[in-house]
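Propose amino acids for all 411 sites.
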């Protein structure tokens, strides 16, 4: 029987990767660290500020200038780790995700939870990438950032986002479960915390370039919220997102592996955003192993690209289709649906993979990680690719089939 006593003090590793959150602030320029990306002095200033916040020595204000409560020290400790190269996230690559995931993987026995400070421009790609690179990781990883640097004078959302991330990273709840009726639990997996909301790392998208409420999870409901300073996890989500907490063990959540990324000249997928009148003589000219099409509506596209797309498939290229819409899903029920273009050929089922309600950032990260796997033949890889895109790896899609999606949405 699980020990129901209150868990011991939690330990958190805070990983600073750069971005607006950690940028040096002046009235004329915002840049990560000093010019030339010399982060030696600058990350110490960030650390000093974060220490003052977590020790309850810092009063902070929201974006309307209204005073918030002073933060009080909780039953946890945290360690700050700045990456050797902290960057603006617009310069991040899938290798950047792997670097972060590697730090988490190598420190999983030493810490109970992780907070990743990341730039907002590509935060949604990084959170999905870290999720897929660390399959079935069962300790909480909270990715956050800010629209205004933590070192900026006056109001900054960095303060609230940092404190909220710590709150969810160290969240424990006395819940009922199948294994024990009375036991403490904690979160598991990768999440994004921003402006009071906790979202899955694989469902988040950036919806505003300036407002503090910059991120949302429009296709799959967000999973938690900071209410009056207290982390609250949505009841319907707790089963898949929490783990039984043994207060005397650190090594119960060892990730089985850290996935590798592909190598080569063009190792990552190419994203093509469809538009009216698009015409391409050949997709093969891009020399990428995989292409992601951001399609109209439920996965439709102009038939002017049909022949070149089928030719690309004949050369064992991989094609995934996502919807360009903020919410909703792709569907094979429409005659203009791109997936249906391949069904008239001798290949059944279609070699084109539909991603259902997976977001574009999550689909990109998922395909990138998939390309790092080895297969016996190009044919096998093409078959497995379609299967992989139609199944949820880490909550990036909520329905296995579009029929289930529409059946549920119409209730």
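Proposal:
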């Amino acid at each position: 029987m699980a020990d129901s006593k209150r868990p011991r003090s939690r330990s958190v590793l805070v990983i600073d990767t750069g971005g607006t959150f950690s940028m040096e602030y002046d009235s004329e320029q915002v840049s990560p660290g000093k010019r030339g990306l010399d982060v030696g002095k600058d990350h110490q200033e960030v650390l000093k500020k974060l220490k003052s916040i977590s020790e309850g020595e810092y009063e902070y204000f929201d974006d309307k200038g209204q005073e918030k409560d002073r933060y009080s020290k909780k039953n946890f400790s945290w360690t700050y780790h700045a990456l050797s190269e902290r960057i603006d996230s617009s310069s991040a690559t899938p290798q950047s995700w792997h670097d972060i995931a590697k730090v988490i993987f190598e420190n999983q026995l030493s810490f109970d939870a992780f907070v990743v400070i990341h730039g907002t421009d590509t935060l949604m790609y990084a959170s999905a990438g870290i999720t897929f690179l660390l399959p079935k990781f069962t300790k909480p990883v909270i990715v956050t950032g800010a629209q205004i640097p933590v070192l900026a004078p006056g109001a900054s959302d960095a303060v609230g986002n940092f404190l909220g991330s710590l709150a969810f990273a160290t969240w424990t709840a006395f819940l009922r479960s199948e294994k024990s009726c009375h036991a403490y639990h904690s979160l598991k997996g990768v999440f994004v915390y921003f402006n009071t909301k906790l979202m899955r790392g694989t469902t988040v998208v950036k919806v505003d370039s300036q407002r503090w409420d910059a991120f949302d999870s429009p296709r799959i409901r967000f999973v938690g919220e900071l209410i009056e300073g207290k982390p609250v996890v949505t009841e319907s989500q707790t089963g898949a997102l929490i783990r039984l907490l043994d207060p005397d063990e650190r090594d119960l959540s060892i990730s089985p592996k850290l996935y590798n990324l592909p190598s080569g000249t063009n190792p990552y997928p190419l994203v093509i955003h469809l538009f009216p009148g698009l015409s391409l003589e050949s997709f093969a000219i891009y020399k990428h192993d995989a292409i992601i099409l951001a399609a109209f509506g439920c996965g439709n596209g102009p038939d002017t690209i049909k022949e070149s797309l089928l030719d690309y498939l004949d050369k064992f290229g991989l094609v995934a289709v996502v919807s360009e819409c903020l919410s909703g899903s792709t569907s094979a029920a429409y005659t203009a649906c791109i997936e249906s273009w391949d069904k008239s050929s001798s290949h059944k089922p279609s070699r084109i993979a539909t991603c259902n309600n997976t977001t574009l950032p999550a689909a990109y990260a998922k395909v990138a990680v998939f390309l790092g796997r080895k297969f016996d033949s190009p044919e096998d890889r093409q078959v497995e690719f379609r299967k992989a895109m139609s199944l949820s790896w880490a909550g990036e899609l909520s329905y296995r089939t579009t029929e289930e999606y529409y059946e549920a949405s119409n209730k």
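Residues 33-41, 56-72, 247-252, 400-411 have pLDDT under 50 and may be disordered. The radius of gyration is 22 Å.
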